[in-house]
Amino acid sequence: MNFDDKVIIVTGAAGGIGKEVVRKLANAQAKVVLVDLNEDAIKAVKTELGLTEENSLAVKVDVSNEESVKNYVDQTMSKFGRIDGFVNNAGVEGPAKPLEEITEKEFDFVYGINVKGVLFGLKYVLPIMKAQKSGAIVNTSSVAGLIGSPSMVLYNSSKHAVMGINKVASLEAAAYNVRVNTVNPGVINTQMMRKIESNVAPDAAEAAQAAYNEAVPMKRYGEPEEVANVIAFLLSDEASYVSSSSFTVDGALYNV
Hints:
By secondary structure, the protein is an alpha/beta fold. 47% of the residues lie in helices and 15% in strands. It has helices at 16-27, 39-49, 66-80, 104-132, 153-173, 191-200, 205-215, 224-235; strands at 7-11, 31-36, 56-60, 85-88, 135-140, 178-185, 246-249. A 7-stranded parallel sheet has the order 3-2-1-4-5-6-7, sandwiched between helices. Helix 2 (39-49) links the parallel strand 2 and strand 3 (56-60). Helix 3 packs parallel to helix 4 (104-132). The chain is globular.
């Protein structure tokens, strides 16, 4: 897949999946905009991947804040003049606890990033792509957006919300030759899974990891680059007639 001179924004670019998406796109000659709340981490990613000022831009962003989202879109347009791809990937796992113990503060935090962040990103990127009459968007949901998981109500429900947003956005964008899809990772070998393992079993994180591993029919965690491969396909011209779709990357874990 060739992304010569295409401009692609990746939110959550310092995370496990985000970083591998940036790597794959940069290797395919894309110009990449790295968006993350952790400024030091995205600068480190730029250095590690050998990105230059000519082919990349790093922006510190709180995706739960609408003005902050507008800012990364404005900076992208100011530097590169267009947006060809958007990986709406930033997300958090939230607490692991029974529904009745969830606090308003926890709700606002998870929904601020996982739902508002996705919606605001689309709000400011879609008009640009519609005006161009071209573009491809991948929203990162999760297999948790397809099922229910005890003790993970905020993560599950927020990822269900991403699926709903994707369906609406894809229909509104289709007439403008803009494609919108979701990728739904299962258990992937990232820092987020380390947090989930610790949250679900604070005193037995390694046992939780082993249990998750055993539950996957392929008997292993997925790797971030395996998710990045699917995202790159969906952004590419190879997927030119694919929109409003959901792609699970989960080793057959959730057969739904």
